[in-house]
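Let us practice reading a record.
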Amino acid sequence: MPDAVGINDENINSTLNLNSNHRIVVIIGSGPAGLTSAIYTGRANLKPLLIEGEPSSTSDQPGGQLMLTSDIENFPGFKDGIDGPELMAQMRSQAERFGTEILTEKATKVDLDAPVKGIWTTNPQDGPPNFTADVVIISTGAQSLMLGIPGEDRLIGHGLSTCATCDGFFFRGKDIAVVGGGDSALEEALFLTRFANSVRLIHRRDQWRASPIMQDRARSNEKIIPVWNTQVTEIVGETSVKSLKLVDTVTGQESIQEIDGVFIAIGHSPNTDLFKGQLKMDDAGYLITGPGTTTNIEGVLACGDVQDQIYRQAITAAGSGCMAALDAQRWLEAHE
């Protein structure tokens, strides 16, 4: 199967009344999913516009969550690993090489129901859209919920992580902590016991919220040390994690725990507020797709972590970005 289904410029221009604000494909979001979509739609001669977000935005910053990752060792093709921002810079350059137009602005409103979609960035929301499109690919991702305590911003990617499968290997033989009490936290802790010397599972209550089977597995693992009724108030370290400041939620007593690394596992939030009332979502707010990357609206596709709460890996996001691009090409061909 070829990588891209080419679409003839002459056919496109004869069937679409293009103007300076109209694009065949608009991609919202610039993580691995969005940039892969851009590479594939660019190679198909669809001249995509990618709205990458703004650096000051926490929910849709350009490059997505990998901009906060210092070392990536599990992305194919980089045998010695690669820095997260460097990987995203290379993907961005590759997308531009194939004709992607990249706009460093934030999408503030969308109108997806009509055959021609509207996307607002800087215009007032009661005014005309800044851009219209025949196909919209949504790749706005999801963000890890954080504790909101001192040290988080400084140490993310430097001993502080939100993904055990991404970063667990770096903590071989180390003493680490996982913060949380749900299924995700216990799953992360169990995975990390493959590498770590010990895993302190810190929870602010006196019992976990996880399913009984996950609790049984955690209790039976000798490397997992439950730390009950405890809240982390600060992550300490200048260039890497050195210790945690803790407080007992019952007595109020403060303490310090020396640690080599910490994983925050209190959940994720998909960046889907922009699409509420238009696209179908599950109870957690993730976009519902299928078959493939299709949503409930014709000509609107979704890929990456915005519709995936299971895998949440750069490589799976990139793969679904490829799927969205191919789905977009085939949809356009069917509607010429």
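A brief commentary: The helical segments are 9-15, 32-43, 84-97, 152-155, 164-167, 183-192, 212-219, 314-334.
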